[in-house]
Structure formats: C-alpha cells, structure tokens
Amino acid sequence: MTMERREPVEAMVARLLAAQGERRGALLPLLHDLQEELGFVGEETVAAVAAAMNLSRAEVHGVVSFYHDFRKAPAGRHVVKYCRAESCRSRGGVAIEAALADRLRVTMGETRADGQVTLEPVYCLGLCAIGPNALVDGAPVARIDDAAAIERIAARVAA
C-alpha cells in the first residue's frame, strides 16, 4: 500500500478501471485496488470513481460506507484488525480488546496520534476455534488470551 501518491487520482482510477476490462460489477474491485494503492478511499477518490464510471457520488459513497473494509482516511503504519465476532467475544474477547487497545494506546476504530498504529474491528476472521484473533498487517495472530500474546502484538507494531 502506497501512502505517497505519484499520479493524479483521476489517472489512477482510469488505469485501474481499464485493468478491469468490460467486467460487470467493476466498482467493488476498483475500490479495493484504489485502497490498496492509496491506503484509503477519500472524497477525492469517490468523486473520480463516480465520474469515471458514470455514477453519482452518492452511489459510490454508499458502497464505500457500507463495506467496513474501506477506510475514509489514511491508516497508521501498522494495522491491527481485532475480531469482534461472537466466538472470539465468548472466549474473553471483550476484556482482551480493552487490554490490547490500552497497551497499543489507541481507541478501537481510530489511528494513534503518532500514526504508528490503527486498531480496526472485524467481525470474523474464520479462525473461530483458536480465538480471540486479530490480523496484524494482514498476518493472523490467534489465541490472544493473555498478556504475553498482547505483548507479541505490541512488539510487531513497534517494529
């Protein structure tokens, strides 16, 4: 994911849209590609996508706001996605989430002021048998059930 943009967002949208070809339903893959390159899907990007796909800004914004994976602002250098699904919650996930947020010094759903880490909720990582779980920069971390597990996550974020 590149946070520093080297090409205008309109050109990026055109390039990524062309890569989709004549594929129906290109909006969602395009938005994922844009987030991968930009790190988020902001208002400028929404406007460029709407213009390129002959959609209203409201239509594009509706998709961006519906899917939790799309960020409207840049994420931190590290992204921790913590599972809030029932299976993880039933294994002490609520207390672990609070301890993790406290240890990382960030509120759930926000980016720490120094830009080092973003803590995001997710609602199932498919690792229910070994929860509570998280993704740290896309890598799964399972059995987050004690202070040592939280420290391992904190160490990865500090690196």
TrEMBL record:
InterPro entries: NADP_DH_HndA-like, NuoE-like, NuoE_N, Thioredoxin-like_sf
Pfam families: 2Fe-2S_thioredx
Record's keyword terms, sorted: 2Fe-2S, Iron, Iron-sulfur, Metal-binding
Top-rank taxon: Bacteria
Free-text cofactor note: Binds 1 [2Fe-2S] cluster.
Sequence positions that bind [2Fe-2S] cluster: 83, 88, 124, 128
Gene Ontology molecular function: any one: 2 iron, 2 sulfur cluster binding
Cofactors: [2Fe-2S] cluster
SUPFAM superfamilies the UniProt entry points to: Thioredoxin-like
Annotated family: Belongs to the complex I 24 kDa subunit family.
Name recorded for this polypeptide: NADH dehydrogenase (Ubiquinone), 24 kDa subunit
Species this protein is from: Rhizorhabdus wittichii (strain DSM 6014 / CCUG 31198 / JCM 15750 / NBRC 105917 / EY 4224 / RW1)
Organism lineage: Bacteria, Pseudomonadati, Pseudomonadota, Alphaproteobacteria, Sphingomonadales
